[in-house]
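Researcher: Last one for today. Full complex below.
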Amino acid sequence: MVERSALEHNLATMSESLPGARLRPHVKAHKCTALARRQAQNGHRGFTCATIREVEGLARAGLGDDLLLANEVLDARRLGSLDARVTVAVDSAETIDAAVRGGVREVLIDVNVGLPRCGCPPDEAGRLADAARARGLSVRGVMGYEGHAVLLEDAARRASETSRSMDLLRSAHADVGGEVVSAGGTGTYALNDVATEIQAGSYVLMDTAYGRLDLPFRAALSVLATVVSVSSGYVVADCGLKALGMDHGNPAIDGGEIWFCSDEHVTFSPLASLRPGDRVRVHPAHVDPTVAYHEHLHLVDGEAVVDAWPVDLRGW
Amino acid sequence: MVERSALEHNLATMSESLPGARLRPHVKAHKCTALARRQAQNGHRGFTCATIREVEGLARAGLGDDLLLANEVLDARRLGSLDARVTVAVDSAETIDAAVRGGVREVLIDVNVGLPRCGCPPDEAGRLADAARARGLSVRGVMGYEGHAVLLEDAARRASETSRSMDLLRSAHADVGGEVVSAGGTGTYALNDVATEIQAGSYVLMDTAYGRLDLPFRAALSVLATVVSVSSGYVVADCGLKALGMDHGNPAIDGGEIWFCSDEHVTFSPLASLRPGDRVRVHPAHVDPTVAYHEHLHLVDGEAVVDAWPVDLRGW
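Model: Here's the assembly. Have a good evening.
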């Protein structure tokens, strides 16, 4: 379920802070073209994607003005054939070669700014940009995700880590050139003053991990579960490991203490008033892998379901 | 990917140990009617389900001889309308009432045998059975899942916990009557001599958690990932939190040490030979929530894909 008032608050708050192309919403957080369309209506016409399927889905939904696949791919053929502007991240000779062979025309040099994941060392970015241009690619600039900083609860440390990462990205950008410096996430969107565009995604739905930060966004997403058993002194509801991303730990239930989750259950501390058939809202710890389990986002206004949006960008 | 030789070994090994109706395979582990059909061909015509969708899917696939929803539901209407023999677990007046109102005719009394989840206290089972019969339901017997025992690595402790749980289930069965005593899982299938039928599911595909036990089943399931980056001294492949159940912890990669998973990546220790574009097999820690992320199980014979089975029992 997506609570409409919280969603609208989050959309408006972010658009005020980062209007238009200053925000390139990351669709991996919601995997939903209907929600992406709402972001586009708010002025954000470029999107960030994590998978080829996400790029394809947005292109087919008519949201292909400027799609960035902020990830490395070794087979880009499905991207090159799309009727959309597609830019892909590259960090190696192999990924440059894949872009060329796949018919992709524009790239960003992906720079490692501290998160142990993709991206070339900052001092190799210029050389890679030269190699990409030599293969006929247009290099729009750089990307460097400070993913190790976005969830730091200490705001000062989050700011200093972001600053250190962006110093690396700035130096790489000086070697690469181009208009785009793409970085940032929900935790750093207001701290990152180097990036020309912020790739935040979680802000629109939120989760309990981001909820611990000093952010102005509200928890919009929950999973509505039915209490199925209170027979042994605790409460069991029908929302488990196949409805929740679990890498950030257990979900939360207002007023309850979670004991553990099973495939289709969450067991939590006694809430004396609950009976089988009652409904509880389960708040996921991590929004992205939670949404990826579900077929629809149900837009709700309190108890009333006002719309059902297909989660149509799942898979790969 | 499902390695055919390992799958066939697992099917044959289990069917030899628990022939025919002694095994009621739990489909929650694979959510795939094509694989359920293979289990039925091996003589196991009754199935265990965790969700209404699983029951519906098996019924529509012509596998509805004897379907047990081993879970409590508060709205059973979709079950009562199926062209299949459907039995549902009940552990309260409310779930009995839901079965009656939904048009379900047969139930098992679900007994709590130590796992803090569903099931009535053992000494209330007889009273619940009376209540169900008074409402016109046929009570086929009892169910009691020793889920707290199935993953214990110490085999002696696993056996003693199972024995203690089954003592409780036996006493409840004495009060309830009926032919069925349904219990057990992949970790206890060979230890549980009280249950008339064993609800094992994971045995057919396996995962690294069950792989640590003294079981004769082979790891059949893996996720095939492509290396996308080696640019910074470690290896990154494109299999992450949306392709893996993470509640049992990180997956495994042969010869590699996992650092962490992100939404679409796994970062692991350097394997000097790996280059972007190379493939690695990622072995999930927990099979059930892993399969629930995927659209197909690809049956493979080494490198060759010999079939693609839809994971058609996902959702609720």
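The radius of gyration of chain A is 21 Å. Chain A touches chain B through 55 residues (CB under 8 Å).
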